[in-house]
UniProtKB/TrEMBL annotation:
It catalyses: L-glutamine + H2O = L-glutamate + NH4(+). It comes from Micrococcus yunnanensis. Homotetramer. Belongs to the glutaminase family. The lineage of its organism: Bacteria, Bacillati, Actinomycetota, Actinomycetes, Micrococcales. This is Glutaminase.
Amino acid sequence: MDTTRFDDDLRAMLDEVESDRRGEPSDYLEDVAGQHVDGLAVAVCTVDGHQAAAGETEHAFALQSVSKALTYAVVLQEIGLDHVLEDVGVEPSGESFNHLSLHDDGRPCNPLINAGAILVHSLLPAGDEDERTALLLRRYSALAGVELEVCEDVLDAERTRADRNLGLAHLLADAGRLPISAREAVAGYLAQCSVLVTAPQLAVMGATLAAGGTNPVTGERVLDEWVAQQAMSVMLTCGMYDASGQWVAEVGVPAKSGVSGALLGAVPGALGLATWSPRLDEQGNSRRGIGLFEGLSARWDLHVLQHRGALRGLSGPR
Ligand code: GLN
Protein backbone atom coordinates (compact mmCIF):
# COMPACT_ATOMS: atom_id res chain seq x y z
CA MET A 1 0.00 0.00 0.00
CA ASP A 2 1.33 3.41 -1.01
CA THR A 3 1.12 5.39 2.27
CA THR A 4 2.52 8.57 0.69
CA ARG A 5 -0.94 9.02 -0.87
CA PHE A 6 -2.71 9.01 2.49
CA ASP A 7 -2.65 12.75 3.21
CA ASP A 8 -3.80 13.71 -0.29
CA ASP A 9 -6.49 11.04 -0.40
CA LEU A 10 -7.88 11.88 3.03
CA ARG A 11 -8.08 15.57 2.15
CA ALA A 12 -9.66 14.86 -1.23
CA MET A 13 -12.28 12.63 0.39
CA LEU A 14 -13.08 15.25 3.04
CA ASP A 15 -13.62 17.82 0.29
CA GLU A 16 -15.99 15.43 -1.44
CA VAL A 17 -18.31 14.92 1.55
CA GLU A 18 -17.82 18.30 3.29
CA SER A 19 -20.95 20.03 1.97
CA ASP A 20 -23.33 17.15 2.82
CA ARG A 21 -25.62 18.43 5.57
CA ARG A 22 -28.24 15.69 5.40
CA GLY A 23 -29.34 13.87 8.53
CA GLU A 24 -29.82 14.85 12.17
CA PRO A 25 -27.40 14.50 15.07
CA SER A 26 -28.35 12.37 18.07
CA ASP A 27 -30.36 14.35 20.63
CA TYR A 28 -27.97 13.65 23.52
CA LEU A 29 -25.53 16.13 21.95
CA GLU A 30 -27.90 18.99 22.92
CA ASP A 31 -26.74 18.47 26.51
CA VAL A 32 -23.01 18.19 25.87
CA ALA A 33 -20.87 21.33 25.91
CA GLY A 34 -18.56 22.11 23.01
CA GLN A 35 -20.27 19.89 20.45
CA HIS A 36 -20.80 21.07 16.92
CA VAL A 37 -22.84 18.92 14.68
CA ASP A 38 -21.10 19.79 11.42
CA GLY A 39 -17.64 18.77 12.57
CA LEU A 40 -15.75 16.31 10.39
CA ALA A 41 -12.59 14.25 10.82
CA VAL A 42 -10.94 11.21 9.26
CA ALA A 43 -7.86 9.29 10.36
CA VAL A 44 -5.96 6.19 9.34
CA CYS A 45 -3.29 4.06 11.03
CA THR A 46 -1.61 1.14 9.27
CA VAL A 47 -0.62 -2.10 10.96
CA ASP A 48 2.99 -0.92 10.82
CA GLY A 49 2.13 2.30 12.64
CA HIS A 50 1.99 4.80 9.77
CA GLN A 51 -0.59 7.48 10.61
CA ALA A 52 -2.38 10.24 8.70
CA ALA A 53 -5.44 12.37 9.43
CA ALA A 54 -7.46 15.30 8.13
CA GLY A 55 -10.21 17.63 9.39
CA GLU A 56 -10.89 18.28 13.08
CA THR A 57 -8.43 15.74 14.33
CA GLU A 58 -8.21 17.25 17.84
CA HIS A 59 -11.94 17.08 18.53
CA ALA A 60 -12.84 14.41 21.10
CA PHE A 61 -16.18 12.63 20.72
CA ALA A 62 -17.86 9.81 22.60
CA LEU A 63 -17.36 6.23 21.50
CA GLN A 64 -21.05 5.50 22.01
CA SER A 65 -21.87 2.19 20.30
CA VAL A 66 -18.34 1.81 18.93
CA SER A 67 -17.56 0.78 22.51
CA LYS A 68 -19.71 -2.33 22.07
CA ALA A 69 -17.14 -3.93 19.75
CA LEU A 70 -14.25 -2.98 22.03
CA THR A 71 -15.91 -4.30 25.19
CA TYR A 72 -16.79 -7.51 23.34
CA ALA A 73 -13.08 -7.94 22.58
CA VAL A 74 -12.08 -7.22 26.17
CA VAL A 75 -14.62 -9.70 27.56
CA LEU A 76 -13.61 -12.40 25.04
CA GLN A 77 -10.01 -11.93 26.12
CA GLU A 78 -10.92 -12.11 29.81
CA ILE A 79 -13.36 -15.03 29.93
CA GLY A 80 -13.08 -16.87 26.57
CA LEU A 81 -15.33 -17.34 23.54
CA ASP A 82 -17.30 -20.39 24.74
CA HIS A 83 -18.31 -18.63 27.91
CA VAL A 84 -19.47 -15.52 26.06
CA LEU A 85 -21.38 -17.51 23.42
CA GLU A 86 -23.44 -19.12 26.17
CA ASP A 87 -24.96 -15.70 26.77
CA VAL A 88 -24.79 -13.78 23.49
CA GLY A 89 -25.02 -14.94 19.86
CA VAL A 90 -23.22 -13.76 16.72
CA GLU A 91 -26.19 -13.44 14.34
CA PRO A 92 -27.12 -10.15 12.68
CA SER A 93 -30.54 -9.14 14.00
CA GLY A 94 -31.75 -7.07 11.06
CA GLU A 95 -33.40 -4.81 13.63
CA SER A 96 -32.58 -1.36 14.95
CA PHE A 97 -29.84 -1.07 17.58
CA ASN A 98 -32.11 -0.75 20.59
CA HIS A 99 -34.61 -3.45 19.59
CA LEU A 100 -34.92 -6.41 21.94
CA SER A 101 -33.62 -8.96 19.44
CA LEU A 102 -33.30 -12.36 21.09
CA HIS A 103 -32.65 -15.89 19.85
CA ASP A 104 -35.35 -18.48 20.63
CA ASP A 105 -33.24 -19.53 23.61
CA GLY A 106 -33.35 -15.99 25.04
CA ARG A 107 -29.79 -14.93 24.17
CA PRO A 108 -29.42 -11.48 22.59
CA CYS A 109 -28.67 -11.98 18.87
CA ASN A 110 -25.25 -10.34 18.94
CA PRO A 111 -22.95 -8.17 21.11
CA LEU A 112 -23.40 -5.04 18.97
CA ILE A 113 -27.09 -4.40 19.63
CA ASN A 114 -27.91 -2.77 22.95
CA ALA A 115 -29.32 -5.88 24.65
CA GLY A 116 -26.20 -7.85 23.72
CA ALA A 117 -23.86 -5.03 24.64
CA ILE A 118 -25.44 -4.54 28.07
CA LEU A 119 -25.16 -8.27 28.71
CA VAL A 120 -21.53 -8.40 27.50
CA HIS A 121 -20.66 -5.49 29.78
CA SER A 122 -22.13 -7.39 32.72
CA LEU A 123 -19.75 -10.32 32.01
CA LEU A 124 -16.62 -8.24 32.74
CA PRO A 125 -14.77 -10.02 35.55
CA ALA A 126 -14.75 -7.30 38.20
CA GLY A 127 -16.33 -6.77 41.61
CA ASP A 128 -18.41 -3.67 41.04
CA GLU A 129 -19.34 -0.92 38.62
CA ASP A 130 -16.22 1.17 39.25
CA GLU A 131 -13.92 -1.82 38.77
CA ARG A 132 -15.64 -2.78 35.53
CA THR A 133 -15.22 0.75 34.19
CA ALA A 134 -11.60 0.91 35.37
CA LEU A 135 -10.80 -2.40 33.64
CA LEU A 136 -12.39 -1.18 30.41
CA LEU A 137 -10.55 2.14 30.54
CA ARG A 138 -7.23 0.30 30.94
CA ARG A 139 -7.93 -1.92 27.95
CA TYR A 140 -9.38 0.84 25.75
CA SER A 141 -6.34 3.00 26.57
CA ALA A 142 -4.00 0.18 25.61
CA LEU A 143 -5.88 -0.28 22.33
CA ALA A 144 -5.51 3.46 21.58
CA GLY A 145 -2.03 3.90 23.06
CA VAL A 146 -3.15 6.90 25.18
CA GLU A 147 -5.01 7.40 28.47
CA LEU A 148 -8.73 7.63 27.77
CA GLU A 149 -11.44 8.90 30.10
CA VAL A 150 -15.19 8.91 30.61
CA CYS A 151 -16.83 12.28 29.81
CA GLU A 152 -19.20 13.15 32.68
CA ASP A 153 -21.25 15.50 30.47
CA VAL A 154 -21.97 12.73 28.00
CA LEU A 155 -22.68 10.27 30.80
CA ASP A 156 -25.19 12.67 32.38
CA ALA A 157 -26.89 13.16 29.02
CA GLU A 158 -27.08 9.38 28.55
CA ARG A 159 -28.42 8.81 32.07
CA THR A 160 -31.37 11.11 31.44
CA ARG A 161 -32.27 9.08 28.34
CA ALA A 162 -31.72 5.59 29.75
CA ASP A 163 -35.30 4.30 29.95
CA ARG A 164 -35.11 2.05 26.91
CA ASN A 165 -31.76 0.56 27.96
CA LEU A 166 -33.08 0.02 31.49
CA GLY A 167 -36.10 -1.69 29.95
CA LEU A 168 -33.89 -4.02 27.92
CA ALA A 169 -31.74 -4.78 30.96
CA HIS A 170 -34.75 -5.50 33.17
CA LEU A 171 -36.10 -7.95 30.59
CA LEU A 172 -32.71 -9.70 30.47
CA ALA A 173 -32.61 -9.76 34.27
CA ASP A 174 -36.15 -11.14 34.42
CA ALA A 175 -35.08 -13.94 32.08
CA GLY A 176 -32.24 -14.78 34.49
CA ARG A 177 -29.58 -13.69 32.00
CA LEU A 178 -27.82 -10.86 33.85
CA PRO A 179 -25.17 -11.74 36.45
CA ILE A 180 -25.48 -8.24 37.98
CA SER A 181 -28.40 -5.90 38.57
CA ALA A 182 -30.07 -4.22 35.59
CA ARG A 183 -29.26 -0.81 37.05
CA GLU A 184 -25.56 -1.61 37.44
CA ALA A 185 -25.32 -3.15 33.97
CA VAL A 186 -26.84 -0.08 32.31
CA ALA A 187 -24.79 2.35 34.40
CA GLY A 188 -21.57 0.62 33.33
CA TYR A 189 -22.68 0.29 29.73
CA LEU A 190 -23.46 4.03 29.56
CA ALA A 191 -20.03 4.83 31.05
CA GLN A 192 -18.30 2.83 28.30
CA CYS A 193 -20.43 4.70 25.70
CA SER A 194 -19.19 7.99 27.21
CA VAL A 195 -15.45 7.42 26.76
CA LEU A 196 -13.94 10.19 24.62
CA VAL A 197 -11.56 9.67 21.70
CA THR A 198 -10.24 11.70 18.77
CA ALA A 199 -10.33 10.31 15.25
CA PRO A 200 -6.57 9.55 15.22
CA GLN A 201 -6.88 7.70 18.55
CA LEU A 202 -9.82 5.69 17.21
CA ALA A 203 -7.86 4.82 14.08
CA VAL A 204 -5.09 3.36 16.27
CA MET A 205 -7.71 1.24 18.07
CA GLY A 206 -8.80 -0.06 14.67
CA ALA A 207 -5.21 -0.68 13.65
CA THR A 208 -4.68 -2.71 16.83
CA LEU A 209 -7.57 -4.98 15.83
CA ALA A 210 -6.32 -5.07 12.21
CA ALA A 211 -2.85 -6.04 13.43
CA GLY A 212 -4.23 -9.04 15.32
CA GLY A 213 -4.26 -7.40 18.75
CA THR A 214 -0.85 -5.71 18.95
CA ASN A 215 -0.93 -1.91 19.06
CA PRO A 216 1.25 -0.88 16.09
CA VAL A 217 2.21 2.43 17.71
CA THR A 218 3.16 1.28 21.22
CA GLY A 219 4.06 -2.32 20.33
CA GLU A 220 1.94 -3.61 23.24
CA ARG A 221 0.04 -6.86 22.73
CA VAL A 222 -3.44 -6.00 23.98
CA LEU A 223 -5.53 -8.86 22.60
CA ASP A 224 -4.85 -12.36 21.32
CA GLU A 225 -5.16 -12.81 17.55
CA TRP A 226 -8.26 -14.97 17.85
CA VAL A 227 -9.93 -12.24 19.89
CA ALA A 228 -9.22 -9.57 17.27
CA GLN A 229 -10.56 -11.97 14.62
CA GLN A 230 -13.78 -12.61 16.56
CA ALA A 231 -14.32 -8.90 17.22
CA MET A 232 -13.85 -8.05 13.54
CA SER A 233 -16.19 -10.92 12.58
CA VAL A 234 -19.14 -9.42 14.42
CA MET A 235 -18.17 -5.94 13.21
CA LEU A 236 -18.41 -7.22 9.64
CA THR A 237 -21.76 -8.97 10.08
CA CYS A 238 -23.49 -6.77 12.69
CA GLY A 239 -21.56 -3.49 13.08
CA MET A 240 -23.88 -1.20 11.14
CA TYR A 241 -27.16 -2.29 12.77
CA ASP A 242 -29.90 -3.00 10.21
CA ALA A 243 -27.73 -1.60 7.41
CA SER A 244 -25.03 -4.26 7.91
CA GLY A 245 -25.75 -6.28 4.76
CA GLN A 246 -25.65 -3.24 2.52
CA TRP A 247 -22.47 -2.10 4.25
CA VAL A 248 -20.66 -5.37 3.47
CA ALA A 249 -21.81 -5.21 -0.14
CA GLU A 250 -20.74 -1.61 -0.66
CA VAL A 251 -17.82 -1.02 1.72
CA GLY A 252 -16.72 -4.49 2.84
CA VAL A 253 -14.82 -3.36 5.93
CA PRO A 254 -15.47 -4.70 9.45
CA ALA A 255 -16.79 -1.59 11.19
CA LYS A 256 -18.75 -0.22 14.11
CA SER A 257 -20.76 2.98 14.29
CA GLY A 258 -21.93 5.10 17.20
CA VAL A 259 -24.60 7.81 17.55
CA SER A 260 -21.91 10.39 18.30
CA GLY A 261 -21.16 10.15 14.56
CA ALA A 262 -18.13 7.94 15.18
CA LEU A 263 -17.25 5.17 12.76
CA LEU A 264 -14.44 2.67 13.34
CA GLY A 265 -13.15 0.33 10.65
CA ALA A 266 -10.49 -2.39 10.75
CA VAL A 267 -9.06 -4.03 7.63
CA PRO A 268 -7.21 -7.17 8.82
CA GLY A 269 -3.51 -7.06 8.03
CA ALA A 270 -3.76 -3.54 6.62
CA LEU A 271 -5.12 -0.63 8.66
CA GLY A 272 -7.55 0.99 11.06
CA LEU A 273 -9.78 3.78 9.77
CA ALA A 274 -11.86 6.22 11.82
CA THR A 275 -14.28 8.98 10.91
CA TRP A 276 -16.35 11.45 12.92
CA SER A 277 -19.32 13.42 11.64
CA PRO A 278 -22.42 13.70 13.87
CA ARG A 279 -25.30 13.89 11.37
CA LEU A 280 -26.89 10.42 11.19
CA ASP A 281 -29.05 8.49 8.72
CA GLU A 282 -32.27 6.64 9.66
CA GLN A 283 -30.29 3.68 11.03
CA GLY A 284 -28.24 5.91 13.32
CA ASN A 285 -25.05 5.68 11.23
CA SER A 286 -22.97 8.75 10.34
CA ARG A 287 -23.92 10.00 6.88
CA ARG A 288 -20.62 11.59 5.92
CA GLY A 289 -18.77 8.78 7.70
CA ILE A 290 -20.42 6.30 5.36
CA GLY A 291 -19.45 8.50 2.40
CA LEU A 292 -15.84 8.61 3.56
CA PHE A 293 -15.68 4.85 4.05
CA GLU A 294 -17.26 4.19 0.64
CA GLY A 295 -14.78 6.51 -1.04
CA LEU A 296 -11.70 5.25 0.77
CA SER A 297 -12.67 1.60 0.40
CA ALA A 298 -12.87 2.14 -3.38
CA ARG A 299 -9.66 4.22 -3.60
CA TRP A 300 -7.58 1.88 -1.47
CA ASP A 301 -9.18 -1.48 -2.40
CA LEU A 302 -10.18 -2.15 1.18
CA HIS A 303 -13.08 -4.58 0.61
CA VAL A 304 -12.06 -7.65 2.59
CA LEU A 305 -13.81 -10.01 0.16
CA GLN A 306 -12.16 -8.72 -2.98
CA HIS A 307 -10.52 -11.28 -5.23
CA ARG A 308 -6.83 -11.44 -4.38
CA GLY A 309 -6.03 -14.54 -6.43
CA ALA A 310 -5.94 -16.67 -3.29
CA LEU A 311 -5.73 -19.93 -5.26
CA ARG A 312 -3.13 -18.69 -7.72
CA GLY A 313 -0.47 -20.72 -5.96
CA LEU A 314 -2.44 -23.90 -6.67
CA SER A 315 -2.88 -23.30 -10.39
CA GLY A 316 0.80 -23.44 -11.49
CA PRO A 317 2.63 -26.54 -12.79
CA ARG A 318 3.16 -29.34 -10.30
N1 GLN B 1 -25.73 5.29 24.39
C1 GLN B 1 -26.45 4.89 23.26
C2 GLN B 1 -27.53 3.90 23.64
O1 GLN B 1 -27.28 2.88 24.18
C3 GLN B 1 -25.56 4.32 22.20
C4 GLN B 1 -26.34 4.10 20.99
C5 GLN B 1 -25.55 4.06 19.72
O2 GLN B 1 -24.45 4.61 19.60
N2 GLN B 1 -26.17 3.49 18.75
O3 GLN B 1 -28.67 4.12 23.40
